[in-house]
Amino acid sequence: MASVTVLSNASCFGQDVAIRQFQLTADEPPSMGGDDRGPTPTELLLAGLGSCKAITIQMYAERKGWSVERVSVQVESQTVERQTVIVAHLTLEGDLTEEQRQRLREIGDRCPVHRLLSAGTEIQTVLTSIASAPTE
């Protein structure tokens, strides 16, 4: 199970993000009213997808003994006919056949984050409350 904690900080829209032992900041650019102190939530999501694809490809290639020197994934979000589309541009460097390149592209599409996003994952928001001091 993956778990992330997000807590508002002193910035207008800034958020402190805790992931295991890592601390990140999410924010919005000034054009959206933020202070631009970190990537936007959408950018973080796209980074997660690109990272997952690259890691999955590297693991598979290593297991197969294929010569992959570098994996590059550029991920962007586009709006096409009022529908959001995520496009991942994959570049594979190494001594690979065309068949191996195609197989690695397919494997990248099977990474956990790709599957999570393309499955139409249900999101449940549970409201928790903080007990306030009793008034007298």
Question: Which terms summarize this structure?
Answer:
3 helices; elongated; 136 residues; two-stranded antiparallel sheet; 2 domains; alpha+beta; three-stranded antiparallel β-sheet
The tally of strands reads 5
Largest sheet: 3 strands, antiparallel
- Please give the order of strands in the largest beta sheet: 1-2-3
The rough form would be described as elongated
Distance between the termini: 43 Å
Q: Let me know the average pLDDT.
A: 92
CATH superfamily of the largest domain: K homology (KH) domain
- Integer count of domains: 2
What would you report as the Rg, rounded to the nearest angstrom? 19 Å
- CATH topology category name of the largest domain: GMP Synthetase, Chain A, domain 3
* SSE order, one letter for each helix or strand: EEEHEEHH
> What portion of the residues fall into strands of 2 or more residues?
25-35%
Tally of helical segments: 3
